[in-house]
Design goal:
Number of helices: 8
Structural class: alpha+beta
Shape: elongated
Order of helices and strands: HHHHHEHEEEEEEHHE
Helix content: 40-55%
Distance between the termini: 138 Å
Radius of gyration: 40 Å
Number of strands: 8
Amino acid sequence: MNDEEFPRDTERTGEPPAGAPEELTGRRRLIAAVWPPRVTRAQLIVALLLFVLGLGLAIQVRSNSDNSALRGARQEDLVRILDELDDRTQRLEDEKQRLDDQRTELENSSDQAEEARKQTVEKERQLGILAGTVAAHGPGITLTINDPGGAVEPDMLLDALQELRAAGAEAIEVNGVRVVANTYFSGDGGAIKVDDRHISAPYVFQVIGKPQDLEPALNIPGGVVQTLEKEQATVHVAQADDIVVDALRPAKRPDYARSSSQ
């Protein structure tokens, strides 16, 4: 029997070639390297921190969404709010146009001195209304707030005043007190002061302005009316073609400021 017969005998026995056990061992080593997965302590801590951070962000976003005053508003309320914003923008555009027209009149008038005098008188009248030194009348609303439980606080009346101003109110009177630029509310519920003058419920706001802008501004979701009604106060808004604001403020001469033309 020569050496060439040994390979043929091996094939007949069905024994695996000499290299087969090494290939099987390498496959097992690969599987052992990836399964079961091995997680280090540092990786576990990082994963836990990322999970906590993501959870916190999700809670914060949901909380902010839930606190939105407009989240539960009806479609018609949202449309009304958008209309109010459009109206405010239009008022500013109208004021800009009016000032442009005045400048054009001054530039084109044949008697510029007389035109300037007329505009000065008109501006004095407007400033007198804003300063509360002259009476005023015009269309507007009457806002009446009844507070039987004395729960209405000064800041709630201030919110109502600010909302009316933002809606275009031009002259306001509260329980016989003329509201001006530096008007403030103080005291406590049931004992409120306006510019250091005591007033008592019902609190009546006489407001000159465009009624179609003033009333919706008070009734927006989460606005003045809803806030006051949560305190068991009752609110009534009445539109009128002619509101009279005749409470006056004395004209004060400044102590130090003088006109630059003097």
